[in-house]
Design brief:
The protein is α/β, with parallel strands linked by helices. It has five helices and nine strands, in the order αβααβαβββαββββ. The structure holds 1-O-pyrophosphono-5-O-phosphono-alpha-D-ribofuranose.
């Protein structure tokens, strides 16, 4: 943490650059049984998953196509509005294909539940989900993520793709915001 705005708004660094790098390396190996077949589709949930998906995809050795879904429910704030909006339905052909959905954080679970249903309706053969951060908490929705890099407490975090009002996505680490 070296900039003034980080000292003012951040409580602490939760996950440093090296810790993230090492865990993403391991996660790519854990995913191998699913991603070993060439030809799966990696679907990146924008905007928050951009950093994680870029790093993870480059550590997966098999060939895959990459596509994007723009999904929003927080609208820059600190809590889900409960209204998950797929802003831009993606053009990728997932019919009959294995899909790995990559997102930054699993909080209420509404986003991934909605996205998985959407992709299944498009005829995907199998859909699995992978997130950087999974919050340890009781969720209202009956949906579980398949793979995660880190489990975290119920705190508001930013950095490595995660934002607060559109800011902080570019930070190379994950930090906890001051309340
Ligand atoms: C955030 C985050 C996840 C989702 C997780 O998206 O990037 O996609 O919420 O929350 P949930 O499990 O409670 O549904 P946001 O709406 O903030 O959009 P963004 O990725 O563009 O920041």
């Amino acid at each position: 943490m070296n900039c003034t705005f980080e000292r003012v708004f951040f409580d602490r660094v939760l996950l440093g650059e090296q810790e993230i790098r090492e865990r993403v390396d391991l996660l790519a190996k854990e995913l191998a049984t699913y991603t070993d077949d060439d030809g799966f589709v990696l679907v990146v949930i924008l905007k928050g998953a951009l950093m994680f998906a870029a790093d993870l995809s480059r550590r997966i050795p098999s060939q895959c196509s990459i596509d994007f879904l723009t999904v929003s429910s927080y609208y820059g704030g600190t809590q889900s509005t409960g209204n998950v909006h797929i802003v831009d339905g993606h053009s990728a052909e997932v019919y009959g294909k294995k899909v790995l959905v990559v997102d930054d954080i699993f909080d209420t679970g509404l986003t991934l539940q909605t996205v998985v249903k959407f992709l299944e309706q498009k005829g995907a053969q199998e859909v699995r989900t992978c997130v950087l951060l999974k919050k340890k908490k009781v969720r209202g929705v009956p949906f579980e993520v398949d793979y995660h890099a880190f489990e975290i407490e119920d705190e508001f975090v930013v950095g490595y793709g995660l934002d607060y009002q559109g800011e902080y996505r570019k930070l190379p680490y994950v930090g906890v915001m001051k309340t």
